[in-house]
Structures are given as C-alpha cells and as structure tokens.
Amino acid sequence: MKKIVVCFVALMAFIACSEQKPFTYRGLSFSMPASKLVDSLLARGFLVDSATSDSGSQYQLYKDGEPYRVLVAYENDQIRAIQENYHLSTNDSTRRLWQQLRDGLEKELDAWPNCPILKDDHKKADFETDGGFVSVILENTYKPTLMVLYQVKKEKKQ
Q1: How many other CB atoms are found less than 10 A from the CB of residue 136?
Q2: Which residues contact 143 (CB under 8 A, 6 or more apart)?
Q3: Is 142 exposed, middle or buried (0-12, 13-18, 19+ CB in 10 A)?
Q4: How do strand 58-62 and strand 68-75 relate by DSSP bridges?
Q5: pTM of the full structure
Q6: CB atoms < 10 A from the CB of 22, how many?
Q7: What is the pLDDT of residues 59-108, one digit of tens each?
Q8: Signed CA dihedral, 112, 134, 88, 120: sign only
Q9: Of 23, 91, 115, 138, which is the most exposed, with the fewest CB atoms less than 10 Å away?
C-alpha cells in the first residue's frame, strides 16, 4: 500500500511540474478569442485604428502616450500573432529599448534568448516558450525600427 501511495504522490508531482504556463501577451492569454483580447486592450485605454484594421484578419491599436502600436492578427477569432511596433526618433533610443525589452522578457519568460543577429544596428533575440515564440527585432537602417513579435506555436495535426 505504501508503494502505491508513493507512486501516486510521485506521479502527481511530475504532472504538477510538467504543467505548461499559458502563453500570454502582457498578462492576456493567447487562448482567449481575439475579440475578447481586443476588448481587454480597449479597457486598458487603447483605441482601434479603424483606418488600418481589417475586420477579417487584424486589429491595429494605439494608445496616446505609448511609443508603440499593437497589431493583433487572428483567424476565426483565434489569435495567431501580436506585434508591437515602436516609434522612436533616434538609433540610440531604439538600441537602449531593445536591450531593456530583451532583458525584461528574459526575466519574465525565465528563458535565455537565441540571438542570431547582434550587430549595432540590427539585432534579433528569439525566445521560445511552451505555447509560442517571442522575437525582439531591431533594424536601424534609415529610420529606427523596433518590433516585438509574439507568435503562437502551430498545433501538430494527428
């Protein structure tokens, strides 16, 4: 009987440790419908840019005072990707913000990024989580460009 109890406790501990944390965007789960995620962002003070949104596949949101716009790509009300596009005026400010975002995601996701590109004006940090991928991309060519892309892992068909 003791062996059965010990096996059961070990199995429960294994299941508890192997539970996946949900893939989230600023605390909002990717498993929620896109319309609900957009409603949550609207409640946080964002506004929908109706001129650049496509009612069948994407929402473009912005908030006064925030240096970024949010693009929510979806299919059948299921979120596929979320992209933040930052608008900053200097290369130095984008480099600093890239490092801050990278360091923040490293702590939040408790993961070390793969950095395939690490030049002064072009950097990329890729994080992989249980539910998706997060990329922080800096491209300073003629105009400073900084983007954070959250993508859901595609489910394997059986």
Answers
A1: 26
A2: none
A3: exposed
A4: antiparallel
A5: 0.80
A6: 14
A7: 999 999 999 999 999 999 999 999 999 988 888 888 899 999 999 999 99
A8: positive
A9: 115
